[in-house]
Amino acid sequence: MSATETTRTPPQPGQEQSPPPPAVEVAGVTVRYGDVLALEDVSLSVGRGRICGLLGANGSGKSTLFTTIMGLTPASRGRVRILGSDPAAARRRGLVGYVPQSEQVDWAFPVRVADVVMMGRYGHMGPSRRPRRADRAAVEQALERTGLSDLAHRQIGALSGGQRKRAFVARGIAQGARLFLLDEPFAGVDRPSQATISEVLAAMRDDGATLLVSTHDLAGVPDLCDEAVLLQRRLIAQGAPADVLTPQRLLEAFGIAPHPGGRAA
Amino acid sequence: MSTLAEWITVPLQFDFMQRALLVSVVAGVVCALLSCWMTLTGWSLLGDAVSHAVLPGVVLSYLFGLPFAAGALVFGAGSVALIGVVNRTSRVKEDAAIGIVFTAMFGIGVVLISRIPSQTDLMHILFGNVLGVSDGEILQILAMAALILAVVGLKHRDLTLYAFDPVHAHAIGLRPRRLEALLLGLLSVTVVVALQAVGIILVVAMVVIPGATAYLLTDRFERMLLIAAAVSAAASVVGTYVSFHADIATGGAVVVAQACGFALAYLFSPRHGVAARLLRRSPAPAG
Fold it and tell me: Scanning A35, A231, B75, B140, which has the fewest C-beta atoms within 10 Å of its C-beta?
């Protein structure tokens, strides 16, 4: 077995190769919290360089799916692959960027925006995490790409809702993450800031990063997302936003039709 | 005349005062560093728990003629682990688990002490005996403080990351549980260092107040560490001197000095103080 493996491994230039593995692959994942079934046999796959909206009502398992992909919640069945490798290995290589929900952050914590972004570099540093020139350059560049250069020395809580989100996105950029998990990035963010965040996210996607975005904002999904996943403990649908967000399916996911007068699909 | 100079120099002629100052400043500094993370993780009361839980360890060390740090460290780290076990393996919540474990340990300590003939030792354990520390105790304190300083010097950024965003720490392949264990281990050693300075009852002040004071004075964590250490060392010196001149309990005097420092920051911190907030709220002067 190992012999065939080694003869097969070096890819021959010019020859036909199998496509690169997807950014994230969830296969038959079931998660239980005690007696509660949080996710049931969920399978999905998101290709590289895509923005995928993760939609569902409260308690639909969105957060559980995030924590399972991140390896924080153990799946009782099924498995997760990130960019073709084991999730723990992907995390150690700094491929997984995480943008937390606002409520999970202590905004009074005595760190500056640049300090937060620098935390993205810790995996690339020595044991004492003393920043080197390359780390400072990566932080500067990430701040620039997210439009936060002028705010680098502000305490993190002194930013507006949208700027705070971009600071955590910048942390993932400085980290060099290729798969981003964004938990409700548009919650508590006004429309103009939402547009700014969306621009940053689209630029990252164009750079080849993959973004998994959980959101309540159904209206914004078709503009921002290349595809959508609808979750209600089980996977209801995955595909192009227009195909996923049908009244029928939204009724199934949310229990109410968001546009009662809208035309049927 | 030169009363202030005398106020400062006279106590230094006494060997026991030199030792007392050394121990209180060292304890004050290491406690101050740890207190920054305690303030930010919301673990302040865990410091209280650990300090009480070491009592049986100290008493047993005394009974068997061991270094006091040995027993204290075993019971300090053991009680932290036990709190975690009770919390994880039952439906009892963490605050209750802390309350149960530390009172149980303290109770065992009180029972053990009641078998000790001399009650002055009890007073020393509970309220500190910084004026009577032996060479051996000073060595233990310096060794533990050096260990804490070395680990903090190497790992302070990881500990801060853990306190700020443990999920991100996990996402980049670090082990938040290990960082948590490291922080708890440091807390245990720190508490033991401070035992000699202020006694079991008042240790919690040393691992809470300096961090809280510094938190009111800065928005940068590295500065918070420095400010906490400076404020705490100053309180140790002032408290020890005042206790000498006024003939009052040293541990108590140090903690009161800490509290005064906090009160000043609470009232007059330029950005986060009560006075500054009131000034900001009042209308700006015309002109």
Answer: A35
Q: Are strands A24-33 and A36-46 parallel, antiparallel or unpaired?
A: antiparallel
Structure tokens at B47: 């410091």
Asked if A92's CB is within 8 angstroms of B170's CB, the reply is no
Report the C-alpha gap between B147 and B284 in whole angstroms: 51
Q: Which CATH architecture has domain A48-74+85-95+178-257?
A: 3-Layer(aba) Sandwich (3.40)
Residue ranges matching CATH 3.40.50.300 in chain A: 48-74+85-95+178-257
Q: Give domain limits for chain B.
A: 3-271
**Bridge partners for A183 per DSSP:** A214
Does CATH number 3.40.50.300 belong to domain B3-271? no
Residues of B with CB under 8 A from a CB of A: 40, 153-155, 157-158, 160-161, 163-165, 167-174, 215, 218-221, 223-224
A27: confidence class by pLDDT, cuts 50, 70, 90: very high
Count CB pairs under 8 A between chains A and B.
79
| Closest to B200 in 3D by CA, of B10, B11, B14, B48 | B48
Nearest to A128 among B157, B163, B219 (CB): B157
Question: What single-letter DSSP state applies at residue B90?
Answer: S
Whole-structure pTM value: 0.89
ipTM of model: 0.88
Closest chain A residue to B225, measured at CA:
A110
